[in-house]
Amino acid sequence: MTQSLGLTTAQAESKLKIVGRNVLETKTANPWYKMLWSQFTDLLVIILLVAAIISFFHDKTESIIILSIVALNAAIGFFQEFRTEKTLEALKNMVHPQIRVMRDGKEMMIQTEYLVPGDVVILAEGDKVPADGILIESHSLKLDEAILTGESVPVEKKIKDKVFMGTAVAKGSAMFEVTFTGMTSEFGKIAELTTSTKNAKSPLEIELERIGMFVTKMTGVICLILFALGFLRDVDFSDTTTYFDAIADGLIFSVSVAIAAVPEGLPTTITVALALGASVLARKHAIVKRLSSVETLGAVSTICSDKTGTLTKNEMTVRALYLGNGESVEVTGVGYDPREGDVRASNYELKSTQVLLNLLSDICWYCNEAKLVHKKGHYTILGDPTEGALLTFVEKYAKKLQVRGSSLETLEVFPFDSDRKMMSVIVSRRSTKGEKLLVKGSPDQLLAKCEFYFDGVKVQKFTQAKKNEFIKEYQSMASKALRVLALAYREVDLKKMKNETQAEKELVFAGLLGMIDPPRDEVREAVTKCHAAGIRVIVITGDYGITAKAIAGELGIVKADGPVLVLTGDEVKKMSDKELSKILKDKTQQVIFARSLPDQKMRVVKLLQDHREIVAMTGDGVNDAPALKKANIGVAMGITGTEVSKEAASMILLNDSFASIVTAVEEGRRIYENLKKFVWFIFSCNIGELFVIFTSIVFAFPLALTAILILCIDLGTDILPAIALGVDPAEPGLMEKPPRNPKKRVMDRAFVTNFMIMGCVIGACVVGIFLYALIQEGWKWGSDTSGDFTYPRTMAFTALVMVQLVNAFSAKSFRRSLFSMNLLANKFLLLAIGVSLLLVYCMLYVPFFNDVLKTYPLNLSDWGWVAVASIIPLVVLEGMKWRTRSKEV
């Protein structure tokens, strides 16, 4: 292998200052002033501003109030959008692609943005090429250049060939020297013509936008009618001076009705809720790349999970070896620290055992692309955990020998790929002539290519009985949840070995090596949650079936003592879609897919989706990308995952743990339920306001609410509590319900009927208290409706605000009684209610607001009636909840 030292850290830092970071310039986020300006471009706001300007010439106080409310609404909208933008920006910055480079003469991992020309980069299968460069080493390298050329067939690359940023390593490994980075790369030149991509809208967002548009159109028609009626009522056609006042009053009132009816803050509130949910997931080690995925998570019904690193710790440790002479070897210790543990053989004094251990040690050391790193007293690995475990074993054995066994020179490397399921290298001893092929790989694949075995003394012809002996031992090791590798070799002539197919045949079997990757401690509880929530867990692994079954049984994914169908990749390949679909459709069938090829993951996802399953699929390799894209939620591994898999996925796990997927599903369910809560709250409140206004018009009594009071209600009781409901804690038993049907609309008949009833009840209570106050002042039906009705309107205004605040608490659950809930659990809701109450107090008891809003300080008796008006909707809603609970029994 060419030893290229690359740059020093000092050289790299110096170049970085000159050429800049290795990033592509994308469309910049909206600057703050554009966000602020956008708050004033809504049609309703523009009409309101026009109305304020018109009213300025006949009532300056009213104009100032309208402008103040518009400004406050804009401030809230700006804050929401600005915070959401910052949240999304922070989420993007949490995922930093890394690459292996040579710096200061040694390998290390750095973020790709810090690459500079002159850096030497090490590529492995699944990596994304992080910059343009020239190959200085190539081992069967093939690149997927479709992103640049559109050609879907991977292109073979040799030394001195160019490689380009954005392409992906489909096969092999290599080293290259960086020539161009960032916008100076070929991909950067293309990027100059592109802009950032918008997040896809979720089904809920689309549905609510459609409903909002319908409500807006209907309200527009109603407002035109109201404007015409108001103008005809107030104008004196014989006096042209009244035209101006009539237009201003009619415009302000009709727009106020529109604001009361249209949930204009709903899209923003949804975006904020999804962004906050994404932030919560990030703190729980799951990065969601698209906001719409947060909602989809709540509907997941099947999780297809890999085993290694996701269900297990991904800290491989060699436990046992079975040598070609039939001897068993025990290896102690845990993790990658070779200082912990030893290599123990019952007949270590046998020369054949020592010869075989030396041979297996060489295979493990040279047939390896990982690095064992000792830093600050701790051992870590760079590369694949399996290969890291092999290096640790070799170091333990070398410690036993007190010296490394041999010194070989690597001449050729045939990297591991998922089709061959093996890796091999051609080596030679520097002191002697002749080359040797060292091979490690899957036992079932490698044993099929072995025609001989080595017993430590001489090479023997493989008989079927002898091969069965090794197969039986392999199965025995696998049944103990050990991941098993087979090791082999052969004498070769490098000049005749043009490719791996020619090299990897007529092999000499040397032994078996078993390693364990223990299950993650937190996964068992996560699996139990899945089963309680009606979520099916299917293990799809490239590992051996017996091993996968043992791990799945230990974690409770399958009942180990029950019938478990283990399908290998070869068996799946022979099955028709109809046969495989029948197995997947039967949810009582315990099934594990072992020795699976990446394209079979895609097939399983498609067939599950044909049965209307919402599928979350895990993956980490370059070949997993199609399945990750096809799945409803593609989940890439943040630690072991390739950059290609991370790009294809909609969610990235920072800790690679299955438990984080389940946490994300639970969070998705919580967010979806909260979306329903504030949608119900906003619409029930808006219906209540409309009921009050139209009742006043239809029954010809004074208007219960002025335009200014309607605007104050909309600001004080809709937006803040709605946002607070979006962060409500999960209800008890959330993960004990089956997954929701993603095709079921939020605005179904039952949901709409519920908030329509509540809106009418709220409106009726407010109208009732308004009529009571009118009668107290001596008003009679048919009397003049243009007088001073400050007291009745204050009563109606206060009752409407208070009943909506109580309604916000009731909206925390559609079935649980308010009196059984922990009202202190959501501190944001308490804060929102507190702010609203403070606003009401100021509007009622501060003389300045009494003058400008035309309100009246209420006494204790008045508050008693307000309390009654607030309790009636609560009683009705409690009755509806009781009825819902009764139906569930």
Protein topology:
Layout: H1 9-19, H2 32-38, H3 43-56, H4 60-93, E1 98-103, E2 106-111, E3 120-123, E4 132-144, H5 146-149, E5 155-156, E6 162-163, E7 168-180, H6 186-191, H7 203-234, H8 241-261, H9 266-283, E8 286-288, H10 291-297, E9 302-305, E10 317-323, E11 328-331, E12 343-345, H11 351-366, E13 371-375, E14 378-382, H12 385-401, E15 408-417, E16 422-429, E17 435-441, H13 443-447, E18 450-454, E19 459-461, H14 464-479, E20 482-492, H15 500-503, E21 507-516, H16 523-532, E22 536-540, H17 545-555, E23 564-568, H18 569-574, H19 577-585, E24 590-594, H20 598-610, E25 615-619, H21 625-630, E26 633-637, H22 643-648, E27 651-653, H23 658-698, H24 707-725, H25 749-776, H26 790-810, H27 827-845, H28 847-853, H29 860-888
Parallel strand pairs: 9-22, 9-25, 18-21, 22-24, 23-24, 25-26, 26-27
Antiparallel strand pairs: 1-2, 1-3, 3-7, 4-5, 4-6, 4-7, 8-27, 10-11, 10-21, 11-12, 13-14, 15-16, 16-17, 17-20, 18-19, 20-21
Helix pairs in contact: 2-4, 3-4, 3-8, 4-9, 4-24, 7-8, 8-24, 9-10, 9-23, 10-23, 11-12, 14-17, 16-23, 19-20, 23-24, 23-25, 23-26, 24-26, 24-27, 25-26, 25-29, 26-27, 26-29, 27-28
